[in-house]
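ARCHIVE CARD
Drawer: 12
Card no.: 0347
Subject: one protein chain, sequence and derived structure
Cross-reference: see card 0346
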Amino acid sequence: MLLMLAMAAVPALRADDGKTVQIHANDMMKYDVASIDAAPGQKLTVTLANAGTLPKAAMAHNFVLLKQGTDVAAFAAAGLTHPETEYVAPELSGNVIVKTKLLGPGETDTVRFMAPAAGNYDYICTFPGHAQAGMRGTLLVK
């Protein structure tokens, strides 16, 4: 009887409310996922895979989620001269919510984070020229 009372006091386990997203990048400077939907505070796991074949020095890819309101063009341009920080300008690193490392062909990296407040958030590849060529997407939090 005592065991039954103790068991009754244990709250029921809830299903994980997380979301997992697989994104593939390629040598055409495109993500295969242009939009991710989430709820505020939702657990997100994003795995980026470089499905390309060109060498990392010529065609690396990453996933960089930016804070709402970040000027994507200015952010990407400022990072062009910063290969040591994977093309994220140190003075603008505060605009990054989360990022993967730069990936060569066949490599993957995973980031886990909580979705921010409601709004639209850009994600880009910071390798030179990629964001400008359209390698970007949007996290839609609602």
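Annotation on reverse: Helices lie at 2-8, 56-59, 72-79. Residues 1-15 have pLDDT under 50 and may be disordered.
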